[in-house]
Amino acid sequence: xxPFSHPxxxxxxxxxxxNDAESGLKxxxxxxxxxxxxxxxxxxxxxxxxxxxxxxxxxxLSRGMTYKSALAGLDxxxxxxxxxxxxxxxxxxxxxxxxxxxxDSLGGRYCVAEDVGISVADVQMMAKETEFFAxxxxxxxxxxxxxTAYGVYMGIRAAVAHRLNxxxxxxxxxxxxxxxxxxxxxxxxxADDGAKLIVxxxxxxxxxxxxxxxxxxxxxxxxxYAVEADxxxxxxLGAIINDATLKVLRVPVIAGSSNNQLAEPRHGVELHKRGVxxxxxxxxxxxxxxxxxxxxxxxxxxxxxxxxxxxHDTLREIFxxxxxxxxxxxEAADRIAEERFQKQPLTSSAA
Length: 351
Ligand code: NAD
Known about the structure:
- With 351 residues, the protein is an alpha/beta fold.
- It folds into two domains: 14-134, Rossmann fold (3-Layer(aba) Sandwich), CATH 3.40.50.10860; 145-332, Rossmann fold, CATH 3.40.50.720.
- It has 13 helices and eleven strands.
- The strands form two sheets. The protein has a six-stranded parallel beta sheet with strand order 8-7-6-9-10-11, with helices on both faces.
- The longest helix has 21 residues, at 51-71.
- Bound molecules: nicotinamide-adenine-dinucleotide.
- Nicotinamide-adenine-dinucleotide binds at residues 144-145, 148, 177-183, 200-203, 206, 221, 235-237, 257-259, 285, 288.
């Protein structure tokens, strides 16, 4: 299937393919839109079942980055790259140097960073061949997870203010799914603010730590959807809002860091109908990319985090628009993003 006729094609500006026989690199860079600036987005390494699955991921994820950066008010466009291969067995210096040359060949229209399967060290290897990279300690910002967690915390505050008329999370119960880099930092912010935590993870050691550190209540992985809480904060998996979980979810607010939380758009419509306030994932989890946008020799964490905190106001605007216009929050977010990145109305399916 060609990119132009692909179901996920959305007027992307450029889709580039690389086949480097020497290193074994097979990669795709998709640039969705650069109206606001050069396309920034992570590189994902994954053993895709087919080339088409890899292209689907590149097209979808790059489009998502355009929306994320536009809503975060960044002068950046949307792009993403994928390397077809198993990150556990196929990594090599030659592979990442070839990826660096591939990124470099686009002359700065695309800037690479980490994503699933790609570590800071991998990006540093790419950086031997290109200056168009982000998300490494040398550039100032480093690991994006703490800033992502801070953005999610501010987003939860915006959501409970809107839906529950509460000025803080103090005394509220938040169910956190996933105690990894983002989930753990989020728990810290919430606990410091007086929230009660219900947590789950597939890693028992992380659960034990959370119980000991935050006084959290632990539940089994499948039980997290049905707990009685004020907020459900998914910080592990995508597609967790689906037909099965909608049958048991009892929370008034869903606000967490996971990417692609809605299995399908209709699940977002259903949440809206039920009066469940959903904080659109790409808005609430933009803290990492906002932090990266401050990278450089003058990086100042305080300034960067003050910028991340604006996720609160952006979400308040989205929630108000949703309320006034009667459209689900994820649709209200898309409309605002489109106003910000489109120079002319889209003629594609995203319009
Ligand atoms: P991570 O890999 O550090 O943590 C994920 C955690 O989820 C792990 O502790 C893992 O054991 C747990 N987990 C896996 N399957 C689970 C299950 N079935 N039930 C409960 N827990 C489970 O990842 P992260 O960096 O913390 O990211 C979390 C989510 O946020 C991901 O969806 C990621 O795409 C998204 N996100 C992260 C960032 C960032 O800056 N790290 C930015 C934007 C979005």
